[in-house]
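Researcher: Next entry in the queue.
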Amino acid sequence: MAVPFFLHDLGEPEVRAVAEVLGQPILTTGEYVARFEARFAQYAGLRRVLGVTSCTGALHMSLLGLGIGPGDEVITTPMTFIATAAAIMEAGARPVFVDVEEDTGNLDAARVEQAITPRTKAILPVHLYGQMCDMRALRALADRHHLRLVEDAAHCVEGERDGVRPGQLGDTVCYSFYATKNLTCGEGGAVGTNDADLAERLRLLRLHGMDKTAADRAREGYTHWDMPTFGWKYNMDNIQAALLLPQLDRLEASWRRRETLAARYGELLADLPGVSWPRSLPGVRHAWHLFPVWIGGGRRDAVIGALQERKIGVMVNYRAIHRLTFFRETFGFAGGEFPHAERIGDCTLSLPFYPGMTEDAQREVVQALKAAL
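Model: Structure for this entry, 373 residues:
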């Protein structure tokens, strides 16, 4: 049995929503984006959300909106997708990596303070795989050192830890709606904040620095617009929002399904020697974006090959990014600087995981993994 790594569950509700948008004159940022922003902000417990084209754009905008740029440093994790560090560099700042917790892969809050310098302006934690970082500890640290806190919640729409949701302690929170995410429109993202002034700066940064949109002109008639600040082209369009809106209706049901799948994987893998996976901590509501396993003994790449021969879709999330060519050559990393991130990056393997996955498919994956080992 072939088992794909991911299958989306988009269907008739999304087709109808997109058809409705296509029957109207405004395809770009407009009413449907505004509707999505309001509903998603309510779900996330935030005052403001802006739909954008990607989590990368949301991170870039966040840093710019907070005044972070050339000469500044931003502390983050090497166990993440490259976009986290790239967004820091796009803003003109320098990423400063700190090692991760060995049992979760999340940024180790206990190690952050020793990386703070006079140039540090922000901390950028990543809620890896769907489990939140220790935001209470990071917020206290940021306040003590007068730093900004930008959350990368690309994996963590539904998460919670110690009674706190993504974005509720950060200055901003950045979401991804990429093709394989729990909430998807193929490509897309959002930035959220509880700061009204910052939200207004982000609104301008999202669309070339312009103070009016095409939808404004269509609704109000043409009046001259201004460009009060420099901006980028990061605005979500109505088609993307139309794909997202119906998914909000089943977001919690989809999360419960993934929670069940994660528990079943845990049962099926419990007696498999040489295989472990990230620990889910007490007080955490895990968003379950991915289900990674850690393969010991330097066998990960061989296991990938064996699984793919049996038509089991797998991914690696992630190799430690400071060991990738660009970061290694740009910043002079030699390896060994962040041993926990390096160990995870050398052994991690993400198994097929999506709400429509069947019990038979999970058993097939685990049987293939046993055979590969």
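Model: The longest helix spans residues 251-269.
Researcher: Noted, moving on.
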